[in-house]
Amino acid sequence: MKALRCVMAATAVGLFGFLAAGHEAAAQIKIGSVLSVSGPASFLGDPEKRTLEIYIDEINAKGGINGQKLQLVVYDDAGSADNARTFATRLVEEDKIVAMIGGSTTGSTLAMIPVFEEAKIPFISLAGAIQIIQPVRSWVFKTPHTDKMACEKIFADLKARNLTTIALISGTDAFGKSMRDQCVAVAPGVGVAIAIEESYGPRDSDMTPQLTNIRNKPGVQAVVNPGFGQGPAIVTRNYRQLGITLPLYQSHGVASKQFIDLAGPAAEGVRLPAAALLLADKLPPNDPQKSVVVNYSRTYQQKTGQAVSTFGGHAYDGLMILVEAMQRAKSADPAKVRDEIEKTKGYVGTGGIVNMSPTDHMGLDLSAFRMLEIKGGDWTLITGT
Amino acid sequence: MAELLQFVFSGLTVGAIYALVALGFTLIYKASDIINFAQGEFVMLGGMTTVFVAQAGVSLPLAALIAVIVTTAIGLALHRFAIEPAREATSVALIMITIGASIFLRGMAQIVFDRRFHSLPPLFGADPIQFGGAAILPQSLVVLASATAIVIILWLFIERTIFGKAVIATAANRLAARLIGVDTRRIVAFSFAVSAAIGATAGVLITPIALTSYDAGTLLALKGFAAAMLGGIGSAPGAVVGGILIGMFEALAAGYVSSNYKDAVAFLIILIVLIAIPQGLFGRAKIERV
Amino acid sequence: MRNLLEIRLLPPLAVAAIFVTLPWFFPSAYYYRIGALVFIFALAVAGLNLLMGFAGQVSLGHAGFLGIGAYSVAVGPAHLGMPSWLCVFAGAALSAIVAFLVGRPILRLKGHYLAVATLGFGLLVAIVLTNEAGLTGGPDGMTVPRLLLFGWSVRGSDVWYWITGATFIVGFVLALNLMKSPTGRALQAIHDSEIAARLLGIDIARKKLAIFIISAVYASVAGSYLALFNGHVTPDVAGFLRSIELVAMVVLGGMGSILGSLVGAGLLVVLPQALTIFHEYEQALLGLILIVFMIFLRRGIVPSVAAVVSGWRK
Fold it and tell me: Smallest CA–CA separation between A199 and chain C, in Å?
């Protein structure tokens, strides 16, 4: 009996909180966000959430936008596209947001797009796949580089080193799969041949069988590993364990200091395409992105005690593009803001220099990616990229 | 030939990991017929606690010891607060409780620790041992050796000590054991403590190879459980053999067939074992059929 | 007066009454969406309840059938050119067949062995859905075209609220009829004592299989609705966590109580929405709720409340 009463009380408290939460103070610009803060994609969502919170506070401290303060409404979809969809509906119907930055994964983004298209609310996605902006949807934008660009950048570097036959080893997670598909599609057009393909599960602990097959395949000149999370670190370790000396390329999915820490000395010589954010202080002084990137790095590190991550950088770019669009539009009206977002030109962000247009809702070109190499346990820029 | 050897080494590496996790299921099942789905979380706690305590400045061996002690305490708490109050419940209810505990521990871990991946330094260095054209990490051999050692210790304990006999008595017939004066509650509590300790040790030894994170427990528990089923749940040598076999199947499947469906191997094995030899390779035919 | 409360159809009628009047209180489409989701999961849980509460079996992989139903309405139109409404039936048929194939050898086992076997089954479904990207769109999932009924495109949370609610009530009534039928009574007998049931000549394995198939069909239809409603489907609809959520809903609401299915589904759909304030602790809380209920409120909410109510009446 007592237990039943406790349960009822707890439920009452929860429901009360639920109803109370819907009645927030108005006269603030409400920005919504659905991120994968917990669950399998927390690698992405956690830095994104922290970044948004830090910078919304900063903007509010400086007086807000157009004289109004910003309010961030964040929900955690725990990596589930279903939940994302429900929270998206909640943001539109209950919280009455005027703009949305979020969707850590492609799956959750695709699930949410219909909601925002129908509600006519601008949606800046933080996910990687090219399908998000191709075909172009009028209310959907994105800040991260597409996986197609990553493949193109890697292939360009391969060609520059006269390497034309490669092996692909990719993770079976959404990120790895999506990028693998893009690489397979792009390769023939640029004269790169994929001699052998292997895959691994995102939580696997040993990839030596797959790498052994790759090592034994004649003609392979380099290996590309689309994937993110812990998989690429283990692949890299196994790579050296097997004594494979061919050039190894990782994806932008591992663009964080943690990868170097986890892979250890095996990471030496690994190349990957990444945003300038990873280099921060090491960028040449006349680099247009330097000040933005250094600022963001320092702020993030200071406020969270963690090393900066490119995913957080995408959230930063999303927020700034949105905020600048609001300032240009001199209003928070969704339709006007959307138009201004589409007119973003020359925005210097952590991911690159953004120039959007009605046919390009991402605005980055290949120069936004730099080719990095890991030397002496740290990132170095390969000049000329 | 060298490639087959490499696949075998990979199978041994992964299999030893599964074996260590599988051993954790054994003792609790032996003493109480409970399948502890939180076993994976014990492994995770061993690894994560060591990482975080070491980050705070404590020396690595001491951090590992602290991790094992903390996890053992959590195992005891799990028994005391979640299992013991429900001791008259059906096996369904008990499974739900351990699943609830697993979710709870995972949920708390992401708050207490963090959501990133972590590693630990291997015991004997990261340079692989070359043999016959294939390479194996020294840490893999450490994991294998530990699994064997634990099996031997468990066997000695069960066969050679009074407490061990009490465990067998409890497993055979709880009521009868109580009647002859065995404190079955303490036996089950003890089994939880030891399984937690085994799990934590596994976590510490596995992390240099497989890395760890707050949600590392789930898949490990599922695979380790498949291994225990294959070997015959309740049999310690069975757990090790089952683990190594599943590791081998996975490595060979990845190498020769398709790396995509590697994970399916373990789960397919569960189904096949249950249909064909439900008691597993080394278990006793105690399965009730309708 | 007493007889009125004991009429078999009273619970579904009560649910129908609430179902029809509740929308008056809905401030926005979001609530319709929550309602629709509750009914969808309640349908799946009702089927699982038949299996767990009546036949006394445990299925830790029931989301696998949810996945089969969900992907039927995605793959059917995309690769086979079938209309969506037909795919709902096709999915149900497919789930029934799979349940038959999987259930026949496994339902002869007892207790936690069945639990484990269904666990393996659910995981395998999730793996196939993730890997067969050419068919299923892989880990990012596929778009699901809107349901077309007599030329009219079914969309909108309110429309789905009515559809899912009506289906659940129908399912509720069907389940009640099943429980009171000879098969249902046989199952209760099995649940109480397998040996006695066998003595009475009841073919246990066949009855269990029948219920397993029925529960699979319920889950499949629920999965199809979920996919059509969302317009998008991903492999985690069949995942391990989903299966655990379904079982938790059964346990919370009350094993063997179809009304409990609604309560359990309602709780686990609404609570994460209500607890976003504590969202950091959401997982930990779910685990804690499971443990607490299994220890103290093992019968679940509805049977416990019913016991309290009948205690008052005395």
Answer: 11
Pairwise CA distance, residues B211 & A155, whole Å: 30
Q: For the domain A29-145+300-367, what is the CATH superfamily, name and number?
A: Response regulator (3.40.50.2300)
User: How distant, in Å, are the alpha carbons of C62, C99, C119, C236 from that of C95?
Assistant: 11, 6, 16, 17
| A14 contacts chain C (CB < 8 A) | yes
Judge: C247–B96 Cβ closer than 8 Å, yes or no: yes
Q: In which residue ranges of chain A is CATH 3.40.50.2300 found?
A: 29-145+300-367, 148-274
Chain segment C218-257, per-residue pLDDT in tens = 999 999 999 999 989 999 899 888 998 898 899 888 887 8
The pTM of this model reads: 0.88
In a domain? residue C117: yes
Interface confidence, given as ipTM, is: 0.88
What residues of A are in contact with residue C236 (Cβ under 8 Å)? 79-82
In angstroms, rounded to a whole number, what is the distance separating the alpha carbons of residues A49 and A37?
7
Q: Are A199 and A183 in contact (CB under 8 A)?
A: no
Q: Of the candidates A216, A234, A243, which has its C-beta nearest B135's C-beta?
A: A243
Considering only alpha carbons, which residue of chain C is nearest residue A200?
Answer: C131
For chain B, the domains span 2-16+26-150+159-218
A93 touches chain C (CB under 8 A): yes
What pLDDT, in 10s, does the model give residues B158-207? 888 888 888 888 877 778 888 888 888 888 899 999 999 999 999 999 99
Burial of C251 (0-12, 13-18, 19+ CB in 10 A): buried
**Beta-bridge mates of residue A99:** A31
Q: Which residues contact A62 (CB under 8 A, 6 or more apart)?
A: none
* B285 in C contact zone (CB under 8 Å): no
**CA–CA distance, C141 with C139 (Å, rounded to integer):** 5
Report chain A residues whose CB lies below 8 A from the CB of B125.
none
The minimum CA-CA distance between B6 and chain A, rounded to whole Å, is: 7
B116 touches A at CB < 8 Å: yes
Which chains are within 8 Å of A by 3+ CB pairs? B, C
Q: Are B110 and B232 in contact (CB under 8 A)?
A: no
Q: Do C230 and A111 touch (CB under 8 A)?
A: yes
Burial class (CB in 10 A: 0-12, 13-18, 19+), A19: exposed
Domain count, chain C: 1
- Token reading at B190: 């003890």
Contact across the interface for B103 and C294, Cβ inside 8 Å: no
Q: Tokens 């797009």 sit at which residue? A: A113
CATH number (3.40.640.10, 3.90.1280.20, 3.40.50.2300, 3.90.76.10) of A148-274 reads 3.40.50.2300
Residue C1 pLDDT class (50, 70, 90 cuts):
very low
Q: Which of A37, A203, A245, A254 to mutate to test the interface with B (most CBs of B within 10 A)?
A: A203
